[in-house]
Automatic annotation (TrEMBL):
This is 4-hydroxythreonine-4-phosphate dehydrogenase. It comes from Allopseudospirillum japonicum. SUPFAM superfamilies: Isocitrate/Isopropylmalate dehydrogenase-like. Binds 1 divalent metal cation per subunit. Can use ions such as Zn(2+), Mg(2+) or Co(2+). The lineage of its organism: Bacteria, Pseudomonadati, Pseudomonadota, Gammaproteobacteria, Oceanospirillales. The active site is located at the dimer interface.
Length: 343
């Protein structure tokens, strides 16, 4: 019998709902039917958090925490199964006391240390993947660290040339060409080279990681009405169309550039395996309208498995027992069955 696969679950911004989600998820797991628990027999979930933060949050939520403390790589060898009721926790030092809902830039180091530990463990193949609870990008920047998201952080940490953010529900997959950029910078960031790299990663991931032999991808235009024949912007003509044509010349089912306003209608979406949107707020509002709280955010193109929840820190819900765990379940399930992409 092979070793169980360990997923590292980073709890993100300590003043947000990340710690709550880890605790609530573990509690919900214990309430599953034993047949449903069985799916997780070969998986261990290691929570990365500060011990005091997690214990205080457990008290606030009235959740009985049975921690199994881990602080060395060696200790990973004997993690208890989820069904034991113990929650394996790797405790990291935190810089300042935490009040739920109250951000403190002093704790940005702690948040980044969790990400680094999880990424290191993945790169060294100690972890089968990392699942991230939300961080607050603003407070990390307030601490003087240039940080735009997990996606970009992990791209840099792993030395990946290009990565792709994709959010997926059971019914819809939406990937992005650009991620966390001011709208003003989006058009300039969309080059033929970038679009080609993003499409390559998306196409290969759908084949390898989702087992779709010949993916059909719908690609949004950038401008209203996909540029209206060049009258409302020419990025479609100059950049997007030539790249898509090279894929079509290879027999690949890449459709577009399509006007984004009607691309997301049932008729157009029918039979598509993924949508490629040009920027964050072109694709994600639709995905979240369709399945907020049930989607996973998956970073494609990394040499490791990384999934995440589809929502943010929801500071106002921290410590109140009102955070929903649906997206964390989806993110954990996705990471449990995924294998890294092989280029
Ligand atoms: N993966 C990550 O690390 C992400 C981090 N963020 C960060 O989160 C911060 C707050 O972002 P917002 O735009 O306010 O989005 P948000 O997702 O935190 O909140 C939006 C709305 O959804 C609700 N909500 C979010 N998660 C919920 C859950 N699990 N259960 C029930 N209700 C939930 C909130 O109460 C709020 O009404 C920002 O700093 C942003 O950068 C945002 C998205 C993803
Ligand atoms: N809207 C998704 C988001 O902001 C998550 O970004 P990341 O932290 O996963 O890069």
């Amino acid at each position: 019998m092979s070793q169980p696969a360990i997923l590292a679950l980073t709890t993100g911004e300590p003043a947000g709902i990340g710690p709550d989600l880890a605790l609530q998820w573990m509690q919900e797991y214990q309430q599953l039917e034993s047949t449903e628990q069985t799916q997780w027999d070969h998986t261990r979930v290691l929570v990365l958090a500060n011990a005091d933060v997690l214990q205080a949050r457990a008290r606030q939520l009235g959740i009985g925490l049975k921690p199994y403390w881990v602080n060395t790589w060696q200790a990973l060898e004997n993690l208890p199964p989820l069904s034991s009721g113990y929650l394996p926790v790797w405790s990291l030092p935190i810089q300042a006391p935490v009040m739920p809902g109250e951000l403190n830039p002093a704790n940005a180091t702690y948040v980044l240390d969790m990400l680094t530990l999880a990424a290191q463990g993945c790169m060294e193949k100690r972890f089968a993947g990392m699942v991230t609870a939300p961080v607050h990008k603003g407070v990390i920047n307030d601490a003087g660290v240039d940080f735009s998201g997990h996606t970009e952080f992990l791209q840099m940490y792993t030395g990946s040339r290009q990565v792709v953010m994709m959010l997926a529900t059971a019914r819809l997959r939406v990937a992005l060409v650009t991620t966390h950029l001011p709208l003003r910078a989006v058009a300039d960031a969309i080059t033929q080279e970038k679009l080609q790299q993003v499409l390559e990663i998306l196409y290969t991931s759908l084949q390898q990681q989702w087992g779709i032999a010949q993916p059909k991808i719908l690609v949004c235009g950038l401008n209203p009405h996909a540029g209206e024949g060049g009258h409302l912007g020419d990025e479609e003509i100059q950049i997007i169309e030539p790249v898509l044509q090279t894929y079509r010349d290879q027999g690949k089912n890449i459709v577009g550039p399509l006007p984004a306003d009607t691309l997301f209608t049932e008729k157009v979406l029918h039979g598509a395996d993924a949508v490629l949107a040009m920027y964050h707020d072109q694709g994600l509002p639709v995905l979240k309208h369709q399945g907020f709280g049930q989607a996973a955010n998956i970073t494609l193109g990394l040499p490791i498995v990384r999934t995440s929840v589809d929502h943010g820190t929801a500071l106002e819900l921290a410590g109140r027992g009102q955070a929903h765990t649906g997206s964390l379940w989806t993110a954990l399930q996705a990471a449990r069955v995924m294998r890294p992409l092989i280029f």
